[in-house]
Amino acid sequence: MNIILLGPPGAGKGTQARKLVDERHMIQLSTGDMLRAARTSGTDMGHKVAAVMDRGELVTDEIVIGLIREQLETAGDHGGFIFDGFPRTLAQADALGELLAEMGQSLDHAIELQVNDDVLVQRILGRAAEMVAAGGQARADDNEDSLKTRLLAYYKQTSPLIGYYHAKGDLISVDGLASVDEVAASIAKALD
Ligand code: AMP
Fold it and tell me: What global pTM score does this model have?
């Protein structure tokens, strides 16, 4: 079972992906997490993407497709892949289809978490405040300016994927405004 979690920043993709990992032994492939890891490890690629990420823009298709290819090639035994924050462009969606086909696999569902923008802004700024309160550091891109750019990038570049997966017959939309457990239950119902 290979699935994509689709939705704007703050929709709850990461939270739901982590639940699926715990409950179904799936592997979460979050390009955002991979890029943040590259930044902290100080690789060339990390330096290259840092400013782009902080502004809230998308890094190049070539970089994220390369990261995903690497992870797909090295994954061990598991209950399927959860693509979280990938694909974000039509070129990435095509590349994902090709990578899976090369492995003799395919995508089962693209699950869209539907939310509205007011909730996103509150959630993301709340997430930043919580991380600081817990003695940590907020994500560099969890601020209002970057958030606006991230939302715009979502509507311009990523939301066309909803039509793309709908046309392929793979799209399932769930209400992302419900509680974490309710959203998880809707996803489980879709998968079983
Ligand atoms: P996320 O953690 O998914 O919100 O991603 C954080 C940031 O990483 C995004 O705002 C982008 O700058 C970058 N990023 C993550 N995934 C992708 C992707 N699939 N394509 C392009 N940029 C990405």
Answer: 0.94
> Is 69 marked active-site?
no
pLDDT at 122 over 90: no
Cα→Cα distances 176→16, 60, 111, Å: 10, 28, 10
pLDDT over 90 (residue 118) = no
pLDDT at res. 140: 86
Q: How far does the centroid of ligand 1 lie from the alpha carbon of residue 116, in Å?
A: 20
156 is catalytic: no
Residue 87 preceded by cis peptide, ω within 30: yes
The beta strands (E) that lie in 40-139 are given as 81-84, 109-114
HSE-CB for 108 with a 13 A CA cutoff? 11
d(CA 142, CA 129): 9
Are 83 and 93 in contact, with CB atoms under 8 Å apart?
A: no
For residue 133, pLDDT over 90 is answered with: yes
Residues 27/179/174/129 CA torsion (nearest 10 deg): -70
Residue-wise pLDDT tens digits, 159-170: 999 999 999 999
List of residues 6+ apart from 192 with CB closer than 8 A: none
Nearest CA to ligand 1 atom 14: 32
* Amino acid type, 129: A
